[in-house]
């Protein structure tokens, strides 16, 4: 692609900071850089027409962990580490809401529910018995008891008679959130280029040379915020994890309201504008879903439809209106990979499926790595 002198000067000359990825992490990083360096030229590169990882493709859960997810975390992390993880998620959600306003992201705190299939009796008992312990563990953060048992009046089938209710879980409109974030970044003079795929980069003593699908240029500092796609830039500690989602048509008199977790959080659904959005099923094919390919698979889509028909919306007519997938970044630890890689290159990736919750703080922390 050929660029004019004007284009070269305006976009690619004397670039101070280049951020790869225009999702939540990338844009909040750029905004924090603007706060710290008001006169700097800040350039954000995005490989897709829209943010192409998970920021615009997630389910819009403003969550910090169900009981079963927290119990799973405690198997590989200490109590202090788990408390720190939950605190980080709450801080991130608070920061995102303050940055964009509740109206700007359509934040609604309708509560969250963890449901248990009757066949999962052992898990159900384990989680119910853990409620007092987890409430005590998280009390320093919330200053109240978060989880409680409620009667199951959800009209779902094959579910235990009681569900675990989370009084502090919310939901957002992912599209509105990213629109608000993009508009804010552009209003601060941050340059954003879409359909720009970074192929490689090379660093010397004073700068970084970036090679993209359309141009090669130099930047003083490089910040990588590609999360699920980080492995393509040499960050092997991050594995991609595809999440498949579908949404129904509008359902008259839809009775479900809130965010819902099923089967250790491997399935999740919510209401949105009279529809049900349902995602998950990665546990059916972990290896197959370790991919950056944006697509759906028959095995997972069939299971999502079965859950809708038999469990979530029994005796309710519905049609599938749309299907999509997004790419998360995961690893052996729930902590994000946030570090200085070399003299001029930094990364903030591996958000572990909690991008809505921690993306804003990871983005700010990434910008703060620069001395």
From TrEMBL:
Highest taxon above the source species: Bacteria
Sequence ranges assigned to domain FAD dependent oxidoreductase in this UniProt record: 16-369
GO cellular component labels: cytoplasm
Pfam family, one: DAO
InterPro entries cross-referenced by the UniProt entry: FAD-dep_OxRdtase (IPR006076), FAD/NAD-bd_sf (IPR036188)
Annotated protein name in UniProt: FAD-dependent oxidoreductase
Native source organism of the sequence: Dokdonia donghaensis DSW-1
């Amino acid at each position: 692609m050929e660029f004019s002198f004007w284009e070269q000067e305006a976009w690619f000359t004397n670039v101070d900071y280049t951020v790869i990825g225009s999702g939540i992490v990338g844009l909040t990083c750029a905004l924090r850089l603007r706060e710290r360096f008001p006169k700097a030229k800040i350039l954000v590169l995005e490989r897709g027409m829209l943010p192409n990882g998970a920021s615009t493709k997630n389910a819009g859960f403003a969550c910090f962990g169900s009981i079963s997810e927290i119990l799973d975390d405690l198997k590989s992390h200490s109590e202090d580490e788990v408390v720190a993880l939950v605190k980080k998620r709450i801080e991130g959600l608070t920061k995102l809401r303050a940055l964009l306003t509740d109206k700007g992201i359509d934040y609604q705190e309708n509560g969250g529910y963890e449901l248990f299939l009757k066949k999962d009796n052992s898990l159900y008992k384990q989680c119910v018995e853990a409620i007092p312990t987890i409430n005590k563990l998280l009390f320093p953060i919330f200053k109240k008891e978060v989880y409680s048992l409620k009667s199951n009046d959800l009209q779902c089938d094959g579910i235990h008679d009681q569900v675990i209710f989370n009084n502090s879980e919310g939901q957002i409109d992912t599209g509105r959130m990213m629109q608000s974030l993009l508009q804010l970044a552009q209003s601060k003079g941050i340059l954003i280029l879409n359909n720009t795929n970074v192929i490689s980069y090379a660093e010397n003593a004073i700068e970084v040379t970036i090679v993209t699908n359309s141009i090669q240029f130099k930047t003083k500092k490089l910040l990588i915020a590609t999360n699920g796609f980080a492995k393509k830039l040499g960050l092997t500690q991050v594995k991609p994890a595809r999440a498949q989602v579908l949404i129904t048509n509008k359902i008259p008199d839809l009775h479900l309201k809130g965010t819902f977790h099923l089967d250790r959080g491997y399935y999740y659904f919510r209401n949105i504008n009279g529809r049900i959005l349902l995602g998950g099923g990665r546990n059916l094919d972990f290896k197959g879903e370790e991919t950056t390919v944006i697509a759906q698979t028959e095995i997972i889509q069939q299971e999502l439809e079965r859950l809708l028909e038999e469990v979530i919306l029994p005796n309710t007519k519905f049609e599938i209106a749309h299907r999509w997938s997004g790419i998360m970044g995961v690893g052996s630890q729930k902590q994000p990979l946030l570090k200085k890689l070399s003299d001029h290159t930094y990364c903030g990736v591996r958000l572990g499926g909690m991008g809505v919750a921690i993306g804003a703080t990871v983005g700010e922390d990434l910008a703060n790595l620069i001395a």
